Amino acid sequence: MKFTINPEKCTSCGICAEECPAEAISRKDESSLYTIYQPFCIRCSHCGIICPADAVICDAGDFSPWEPPEINQQDLLSFLQGKRSIRHYSEKPVSRDVLETLLFTGSVTSTASNRQEWEAVVVTGEKVRELSRDVMTFYQGIYKMARNPLFRFILAFTEAKRYVRNPGTFRKFRRFIERFEEGGDPVFFNAPAAVVLHAHKRHKQWGLTDCVLAGAAMMYGAQSFGLGSCMIGFAQVVLNFKSGLREKYGIGKKNTVHSVFTLGYSSRPYRKLPKRKPIPAQFIE
Ligand SMILES: Cc1cc2nc3c(=O)[nH]c(=O)nc-3n(C[C@H](O)[C@H](O)[C@H](O)COP(=O)(O)O)c2cc1C
After folding, report:
1. Mean pLDDT across the chain
2. How much distance in Å is there from the Cα of 95 to the middle of ligand 1?
3. Which of 15, 140, 144, 184 lies in the 20 to 30 Å Cα band around 111?
């Protein structure tokens, strides 16, 4: 994508240069016109969407008009508060149209330096069950090893010590495995769809933040379609641990998975709000 300034329309007001976060817009002197220095441009569009003279040209087409929609603050809070992690789904599939709209919803969020380097894998139907089995195979292996006292003894000297030293954690883990072996899906809860957001390792600094922001927008967007969702850290851990599994699901070996979540229609209504503690905050004034 390339942005340029139409010299016939530009009034030299300079608002684009002030707006540009990348210091890409300047002019030589008071009598010359503003130009965009392409190597600095991060293609964020701010120049084009602020220009009062419509003088910025984007080779990908015109900028869509936009007016802030009227949103009632109380309704918005209620909508956000109503976002639950859904673990019981009806069998109704999520349509391709809705999935594509949600991907678009994710794509409108901010990314560091406007890099937009995230990628998505959308898994649906039986493929979600297969991914769930792949994830559980990994945990079954860990469980098998964790039952060996010698292995547990060694683990007690590693980062995993808080898991092996706590008998409650081990019991919970055993129940997790049993639920799978009894035919359940303790990873994706039989959801009809799941989304994996990932970014290349070279995008180390901000890939996680970019994916989490896009994922959050997708999950709230899903809610506006009456869809439930749930973040699945259990799957994220395994996908990041097993490069072969990433490869199987079309995720580059050099990519890190930053967000995994389910999508589907909840089979259970919630009629009350959960309790939450306030964010401990300081005001520095
Ligand atoms: C980073 C992250 C990872 C999570 N991983 C899982 C998971 O693997 N399985 C699960 O059932 N819930 C998972 N959750 C959901 C949380 O348990 C849930 O958000 C929390 O219990 C609060 O419930 P609520 O989302 O309905 O408000 C995860 C949430 C986050 C933010």
Report:
1. 95
2. 24
3. 15
Give the distance (Å) from ligand 1 centre to CA of residue 170. Answer: 19
Residue 161 has pLDDT above 90, yes or no: no
User: Residues, the chain, total?
Assistant: 285
* Cβ-based neighbour number of residue 128 at 10 Å: 24
At 258 the pLDDT is 98
The domain defined by 84-285 folds into NADH Oxidase (3.40.109)
Which residue would you say has higher pLDDT here, 163 or 224?
224
Ligand 1: centre distance to CA 241 (Å) = 20
Q: Is 176 in the pocket of ligand 1 (CB under 6 A)?
A: no
Distance in angstroms (rounded) separating the CA atoms of residues 132 and 152: 26
- Cα 113 to ligand 1 centroid, rounded to whole Å: 29
For the domain 3-58, what is the CATH code? 3.30.70.20
Query: What one-letter code names the amino acid at 259?
Result: S
Report the nearest-CA residue for atom 16 of ligand 1. Answer: 85
pLDDT in tens, 113-146: 999 999 999 999 999 999 999 999 999 999 998 8
Phi, psi of 159 (to 5 degrees): -55, -25
What is the H or E stretch that residue 270 is in? none
Q: What is the mean pLDDT of residues 236-258?
A: 96
Q: Whose CA is nearest to atom 10 of ligand 1?
A: 232
Question: Nearest residue CA, atom 6 of ligand 1?
Answer: 232
For the chain, give every domain's residue range: 3-58, 84-285
- Residue 200, phi then psi, degrees to nearest 5: -65, 150
E-only strand ranges, 144-232: 193-200, 228-231
Q: 230: Cβ below 6 Å to ligand 1?
A: yes
Q: By the 8 A CB rule, do 159 and 231 touch? A: no
pTM over 0.85: yes
- Which atom from ligand 1 is nearest to the alpha carbon of 236? 8
